[in-house]
Amino acid sequence: MAARAAVAGASGYAGGELLRLLLSHPGIEIGALTGNSNAGQKLGALQPHLLPLADRVLAETTPGVLAGHDVVFLALPHGQSAAVAEQLGPDVLVVDMGADFRLKDAADWERFYGCAHAGTWPYGLPELPGGRAALEGSKRIAVPGCYPTAVSLALFPAYTAGIAEPEAVIVAASGTSGAGKAPKPHLLGSEVMGSMSPYGVGGVHRHTPEMIQNLSAAAGERVCVSFTPTLAPMPRGILATCSAKAADGVTGDSLRAAYEKAFADEPFVRLLPEGQWPATASVYGSNAVQVQVAYDEAADRIIAISAIDNLTKGTAGGAVQSMNIALGLDETTGLSTIGVAP
Amino acid sequence: MAARAAVAGASGYAGGELLRLLLSHPGIEIGALTGNSNAGQKLGALQPHLLPLADRVLAETTPGVLAGHDVVFLALPHGQSAAVAEQLGPDVLVVDMGADFRLKDAADWERFYGCAHAGTWPYGLPELPGGRAALEGSKRIAVPGCYPTAVSLALFPAYTAGIAEPEAVIVAASGTSGAGKAPKPHLLGSEVMGSMSPYGVGGVHRHTPEMIQNLSAAAGERVCVSFTPTLAPMPRGILATCSAKAADGVTGDSLRAAYEKAFADEPFVRLLPEGQWPATASVYGSNAVQVQVAYDEAADRIIAISAIDNLTKGTAGGAVQSMNIALGLDETTGLSTIGVAP
Amino acid sequence: MAARAAVAGASGYAGGELLRLLLSHPGIEIGALTGNSNAGQKLGALQPHLLPLADRVLAETTPGVLAGHDVVFLALPHGQSAAVAEQLGPDVLVVDMGADFRLKDAADWERFYGCAHAGTWPYGLPELPGGRAALEGSKRIAVPGCYPTAVSLALFPAYTAGIAEPEAVIVAASGTSGAGKAPKPHLLGSEVMGSMSPYGVGGVHRHTPEMIQNLSAAAGERVCVSFTPTLAPMPRGILATCSAKAADGVTGDSLRAAYEKAFADEPFVRLLPEGQWPATASVYGSNAVQVQVAYDEAADRIIAISAIDNLTKGTAGGAVQSMNIALGLDETTGLSTIGVAP
Amino acid sequence: MAARAAVAGASGYAGGELLRLLLSHPGIEIGALTGNSNAGQKLGALQPHLLPLADRVLAETTPGVLAGHDVVFLALPHGQSAAVAEQLGPDVLVVDMGADFRLKDAADWERFYGCAHAGTWPYGLPELPGGRAALEGSKRIAVPGCYPTAVSLALFPAYTAGIAEPEAVIVAASGTSGAGKAPKPHLLGSEVMGSMSPYGVGGVHRHTPEMIQNLSAAAGERVCVSFTPTLAPMPRGILATCSAKAADGVTGDSLRAAYEKAFADEPFVRLLPEGQWPATASVYGSNAVQVQVAYDEAADRIIAISAIDNLTKGTAGGAVQSMNIALGLDETTGLSTIGVAP
């Protein structure tokens, strides 16, 4: 029997992508859909690509509306999830697609988000060491940020294998949907088409402590992260170019072996054949992660590059994958490794 | 038991899109994959978005390779399908995604394609009047062109209802994948990004006689078509803006009623609510067709606009839809009306 | 001695493009720059591409600020120009880049704009018959709309020559800058990239009466216009695909002769060699207009297609060109026919 | 009196951009234009944006055609410049836009380019320490690569000031025109739109030794460079994100002071106000360089980011700037710091 799922925040990009996936998920029946400023509107006007739900009307995000579901997804602005989650019983699976419960360190949270720390939930990145165990049977899931998903998957094998120095330099390009649907001048099509630009430079992007948390756990020591995000002229996709000094004795072969081992049984991560590099277009609309690594001998650095769809594996697909584990379903249910290209 | 399907021309855009759909089709098992200049290569290098098929090797397009399948899809350059089809037995379902068997009029074929007419097969646009009946149990299917799919669906209800004069003016914008994967200077990203340009102007585009054939059949008289295609800076999608003088007495209400009637039971065509207009992004990767109509009273013209994904409903999705009918499967099997957006 | 020019509305796209051109204009000294909600900000934060003006601070749009200039450009929202213009003396050249003074028919104005008609100023499209004479020595100029510029230039030669029937069908694609810089959800990069969509369908777009006014004047009789604008995934450019039934006896040769005659001495209009078609990329950032025509014999229609940059020839370049004439300067001063491509 | 300039390789992107600039250059008269496979064709068919040159016919690249010019620009494939340059007299200013004469180290050249080293010419990046002196009166100029231009300008002030450790990590995104006009499948619009992908990863990109050469000269010691280029979905532009460990005692203030000093008198380099970051759209079609720096205290790294137009400052604009110096003209003649945006 299908589990009944509600989606709070169904009018945004994360909510829309989640609904796209849930519509094809055999174990889920879509229940209440809510949206604050858009409550009362039909979904067909807000998410015109979701034809089967075109006549569904958005409700307000209230405890009453969200009651009576097996799973509640929260696609709300940062800082709003805790209040809603409190009102949902301990038996409901709550999947938070916001940042509220990702960080373990309250001081980090307060420094980067500027409000009180709500707590820490099991972290929804199954591919990390111990990742699946943390999610099995859980009733609370913190879905990772899109950049931390791409970066952690690109680099953790090097840290787990102990072959990278604990100072990572990361430059990532993201499609504009990562910035959300609220209209701002710098996100206008006229501004972003034909333009690459950085933002949040110098260690101030909120996803930085999350990367540090994941990579430090893999390394068994604190990993320092220099992270520069850039906005790319495309709707979706993250390309994360990550590097770190190689530990003594690393070779191209030992590097590749570490990655082959890390991803050998992963249903969604594809270590590409040597010589082929990730492209965001190849994972468009898919839950797949493409990874490739190289050892730059002259610079003595490991270069690890990953491509994901920021809305799928980076948000809604990752949420569904973790939900599947929590519900005891096959982890790949309702998810695909097939991109829409060209 | 699943039908076994071969795909001749698996390295191109039409072949790739077909494989994307067949991978999710519960009634199809993917058999031989062929490609001429790419024979011997792994599909992972040519279609990196199709991860589950990454290690499949392309064979040459020979009768032996294509033998032993229930369905054979031909995604070959125009003029090459007939020779291949002849070597496949009458019990094999052959679905031609090229132009070879679309036109009924041999003179039209010869004028527009410059070679001998190979014949006419049942036409794979189920939504047209009599369209499904022609496909049921058929062993040969001619998949329509992408522009004729968009244009015929936008205009046939007006002609069937007798409310449009038989002179249609059509301007359509297509994504670049419609021009194929063979590299040509004018299709370089540097050239097409930021640019709109027409081509095949003045009645010379090969899809013109196909539109005339479809609309004339709906109208019961010869419909004259002025068709101007334009190349738009996007990978996928067709937006067809079609108009014709209104017959005497047409009103906005009678126009809308004609379209509501035509599409009432269509699983893939969505007549949008009044005031909402089609967008190619909404049908990205989906088999859906979005249609809207308006009556321009001052100009006394009917304006009908459709949006499709040229590779899905316009090519590979249309092929699967017609195959489903021919095989006696549910028409929507393996197809979706959900787009990938934003 | 250079004329001193003020720009009211310097923070928007039209104002920014105007400043880009004026910076290279040898006869103009840039004076006051104003912006309402942005008053007090440096231009470098609002128009980061205009480095030489980066430290200029925007003033409020008041009579005092605008006083003491030889030329005042108004790049204001529709309906706001008249009030500002009234306060400028009769000896100041006022160039309105808004719609307020374009239409001659007050009823048309009120129907399409919903407010009282402010009047009619000399119309800034020098290439139209009598266009230059109307501008020479004028102290008031109404800059045409971007679509009417592209459409009128594509079609007036056919109407002047009496070779087209008075019912024109126009489908035009515009880059997103035509929709302005005010942030709206449907203009987000995430929404527009990869998408073509129509708007203002059915004769309701405000540029329709302006096209009718221009083409009717050329034809010497009322020309009926069916106009469908579409939004294209590019920042700039308009491609206007225009057609009309041919008058009796028209041939490809007589059609071409009419266009050659109309544009023989035009410095900014290029009738392309036969077989070459306009592309918006070729006029990017330039004041040039590319035009091509064809006679579709089967449909008996004239097809005329033009490409312009909507911000240059379609707005700010057209404004400068008309200003040059009004000031008695060489018409091409400060303007270029060279596009930025690829 | 204007100098007469020939352009060998006028049909490609570098040649086209050079002609765009030379057309507005008051000190240059455009002489012979050559192109190999395109010899005999009109430029209007190959570079449709250069209307004033539309009727010019391309000649073959022969000594006779190039004779009799004051300046000869070579926009030829790598490895072809030396043979042509030899046939031009010592009094002709030869500006090589290819790579042939950039590197000082013959072994580096041979390792990265796989052929014999032709020599080393004065290097056309005036902003580097000693850059202008090397060009004054020179009759030979090696125009820098596009990536080395962006990277060297972003990082040399830190090395000159001795505030960065000699290990730089660089990730740069380039528009597709950097890959040239020769049609290849992975450069098709269908492939590049919506996609970010890396290439030449692991220290193998040919521009790496050029960066090392420039940065090492600034640092006075060998600088190690890890360089990862990525292809971005835009026609033009490079965004270079560069970083290095800070030397002991660096602060945000001392970092900024170093950059202010380095660029204080540079006509084309703009160190943006604090808090504003470069965007490629802001330098579209311009010779300007936008630079911004930040000190990431937690990671103890200097982050320096630059944006250029790869075809303008990165190629043809840089060539004109260096030519101006060599000819004794004002360095900014014919060049602009104004971008075409949005």
TrEMBL record, chains A, B, C, D:
Matches recorded under InterPro entries: AGPR, AGPR_AS, AGPR_dimerisation_dom, AGPR_type-1, NAD(P)-bd_dom_sf, Semialdehyde_DH_NAD-bd
Biochemical pathway: Amino-acid biosynthesis; L-arginine biosynthesis; N(2)-acetyl-L-ornithine from L-glutamate: step 3/4
CDD domains documented for this protein: AGPR_1_actinobacAGPR_like (cd24148), AGPR_1_C (cd23934)
SMART domains in alphabetical order: Semialdhyde_dh (SM00859)
Catalysed reactions, semicolon-separated: N-acetyl-L-glutamate 5-semialdehyde + phosphate + NADP(+) = N-acetyl-L-glutamyl 5-phosphate + NADPH + H(+)
EC number of the protein: 1.2.1.38
Transmembrane segments: none
Active site: C146
Single GO term (MF): N-acetyl-gamma-glutamyl-phosphate reductase activity
Semialdehyde dehydrogenase NAD-binding domain residues: 4-136
Origin superkingdom: Bacteria
Top EC class of this enzyme: oxidoreductase
Location within or outside the cell: Cytoplasm
Predominant localisation class: cytoplasm
CC annotations in GO: cytoplasm
Keyword list, A-Z: Amino-acid biosynthesis, Arginine biosynthesis, Cytoplasm, NADP, Oxidoreductase
Keyword Amino-acid biosynthesis: yes
BP GO terms, sorted: L-arginine biosynthetic process
Similarity comment: family membership: Belongs to the NAGSA dehydrogenase family. Type 1 subfamily.
Function: Catalyzes the NADPH-dependent reduction of N-acetyl-5-glutamyl phosphate to yield N-acetyl-L-glutamate 5-semialdehyde.
UniProt name for this protein: N-acetyl-gamma-glutamyl-phosphate reductase
